[in-house]
Amino acid sequence: AQKITQTQPGMFVQEKEAVTLDCTYDTSDQSYGLFWYKQPSSGEMIFLIYQGSYDEQNATEGRYSLNFQKARKSANLVISASQLGDSAMYFCAMREVYTPNTGNQFYFGTGTSLTVIP
Amino acid sequence: DSGVTQTPKHLITATGQRVTLRCSPRSGDLSVYWYQQSLDQGLQFLIQYYNGEERAKGNILERFSAQQFPDLHSELNLSSLELGDSALYFCASSAPSGTGPLTDTQYFGPGTRLTVL
């Protein structure tokens, strides 16, 4: 089974509008971390936001917020006031508790391509 | 700029050849991770090193190997290259604790784009 599922291959949003990118995860761990990364066309992976499984409040970082619904195992990224520079691929990732077999690896989803329309 | 450096940025080579990708982690980071990003497989974890020692292996082929040196830089060696090895190879590093808290973010380098012809 996939650890991270991103069901939206592509999304469009009007400039200055808000957009939600979906992410669901699968883990039997009680402790885990959820991350979102942005990958512009230039290719680099840029860290955006982190949510811990025990965090009671949703994480926020500037225009990014994470809508964390633990019971539903979802960690959706909300981008407010979209800008043209937000056009990129967005990846959801999860880190589970360290084990000798899995280390500290991140499990990534397949990504969502976001296009901001002027 | 994440502080993680990777060289070269682009690499074009032929099938059957061997290449070495290099990564320098952020200052103070002891863990280095290698990931492969291809169109059909997405982002796949290859291997993790912590302070010179292998910590975990993912979907790394036997033709691939890696090491982390005393100065903490890491190299990924790819041999007997095949067309399917064409991909973007990322190195990432994370904070000092090898088994560390889940808050340890991984910071990615700019990647090495490998093209095998």
What integer is the average pLDDT of chain A?
94
Q: Biggest β-sheet of chain A: count, sense, barrel? A: 6 strands, mixed
What is the count of DSSP helices of chain B, taking H or I runs of 4+ residues?
0
User: What pair of chains forms the biggest interface?
Assistant: A-B, 31 and 29 residues
**General shape of chain B:** globular
What shape does the CA trace of chain A take?
A: globular
Unreliable stretches of chain A, pLDDT < 50, 5 or more residues?
none
Helical segment tally of chain A?
0
Helices and strands in order:
The complex is a heterodimer of chains A (118) and B (117).
Chain A: E1 4-5, E2 10-14, E3 19-21, E4 24-25, E5 32-39, E6 46-52, E7 60-61, E8 64-69, E9 74-79, E10 88-96, E11 106-108, E12 112-117
Parallel strand pairs in A: 2-12
Antiparallel strand pairs in A: 1-4, 3-9, 5-6, 5-10, 7-8, 8-9, 10-11, 10-12
Chain B: E1 5-7, E2 10-13, E3 19-24, E4 31-38, E5 42-50, E6 53-57, E7 64-68, E8 74-78, E9 87-94, E10 107-108, E11 112-116
Parallel strand pairs in B: 2-11
Antiparallel strand pairs in B: 1-3, 3-8, 4-5, 4-9, 5-6, 7-8, 9-10, 9-11
Summarize the structure in words.
The complex is a heterodimer of chains A (118) and B (117). Chain A is mostly beta strands and 118 residues long. Chain A is built from no helices and twelve strands. Chain A starts with a strand and ends with a strand. By secondary structure, chain B is mostly beta strands. Chain B has strands at 5-7, 10-13, 19-24, 31-38, 42-50, 53-57, 64-68, 74-78, 87-94, 107-108, 112-116. In chain B, strands 2, 4, 5, 6, 9, 10 and 11 form a seven-stranded mixed beta sheet that branches. Chains A and B meet through strand 5, strand 6, strand 10 and strand 11 of A and strand 4, strand 5, strand 9 and strand 10 of B.
Write a brief structural summary.
By secondary structure, chain A is an all-beta fold. Chain A has strands spanning 4-5, 10-14, 19-21, 24-25, 32-39, 46-52, 60-61, 64-69, 74-79, 88-96, 106-108, 112-117. In chain B, the strands form two sheets. In chain B, strands 2, 4, 5, 6, 9, 10 and 11 form a seven-stranded mixed beta sheet that branches. A four-stranded antiparallel beta sheet of chain B has the order 1-3-8-7, with no helix packed on it.
